[in-house]
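Subject: mismatched residue count in predicted assembly?

I count 429 residues in my input, but I want to confirm that the predicted structure covers every chain. Input:
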Amino acid sequence: MIGASQGAPVPAGREADTLDASEIKRLLAGELEDEARERFAGIVLRHQRRASRIAYHYLRDAAEADEAVQDAFVKAYLHLDTFREELPFEVWFTRILVNGCLDRIKARARRDRWFVPRAENVEDGQGVLETAAGTGPSPEDALLARERHRRLNRALGRLPDRQRLVFVMSQVEGCSSKEVSAATGLNESTVRVHLFRAIRRLRKLLTEPPEVTGGTNRAVR
Amino acid sequence: MLSARETARPHLGERQLLAACQEGERPAHLDECQTCRARYAKLAAFLDAVRQDATGAADEVFTAERLAAQAAHVRRRLKNLSAPVRVLTFPAPRRSAPMVGRAGRRWVAMAAAAGLLIGLATGVTVNFHPFGAQFGPPTAAERAVGDRTAGSARSMALSNAWAAADRRQGDEAFLSEADSAFGSPHVEELQAIDAMTPRVREIAAVSR
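Triage response: the counts match. Full output below for your records.
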């Protein structure tokens, strides 16, 4: 199911990953590191958008998500010899990414225990200047879309970490419960329960009238 | 208006609807029950909307430029991994002088021993006392100097003692004056306590 939402034929993508991974392993064994890196760059390009989405929704911080994705790719490259072909590369890689994100969340919790928590930069109006003069959708559409994104981000932010991760992987990235289970280490039935709860909660949160707080709502009116 | 078939069967639960949306396990009930079909359509539309919004929200932040920069970062980090580690040389002890050979070392040892012997012999010959008057009897000159030194030390000690006695007497006089000035309390209630409190002059007299 992974990659289906992006329109790429699934077996081809997976086969390409598996082929690339095997080839990189062979190149690294032959100490042809430049070629191995070039080959790995292809894998990075294929997976970075999806990985960034997952990390972003999981960590709720763009800069941290960026770092987490980079770390995950570097780690995957370093431990490519442990990759076994029976598991899809993306599942193996997602597991590395999720574990990295989890470590970051723990570290953040430790940090926040001692320091004042940082303000989330999800709603910092990023991209306003870029879209203002752009040739994309009309300003009204862009504003409405941004408002919807904000609401969704807020609602996702109110989900527990695990529920959010499962929801993003299942619903946004189109992974099956089995794949989410393999990537997160959770039981398949647990994945289903998390997903069900996440959807139920999101429906409640997103169908509620928006809170009248802050400048965002004033701007919409 | 529900048909008889619809009322006969219970509707699908939310979990079943979700499974139908998520895993593609479309139950036969959906084809028969209009209510459940509507619920299914509503849930599917909601999930589609959320999917689009979630994708849009992430893609708004992770633009193509940002992803290109991310890929470049990954590439650079991988390149740095395989780059040979630069080892900074730790400062080693410098070889300032050329090594002296075995014969040279022997000559140095012999010169040091000879110097020691010559020094001892010279010391014995000129009666040199490196530790002063503690060793050997003092000479007449030394004795005269010693007497003068001892005399002056004695006089200094005496003058110090007198000065100390003067200071002590001065202190006592001052305290006695202060005592007598404050001796008689003006408050009647304190007179009994004052009578019981010893005076400085009394203590001084006892200590003498």
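Residues 1-11, 120-132, 213-221 of chain A have pLDDT under 50 and may be disordered. Marking this ticket as 'not a bug'.
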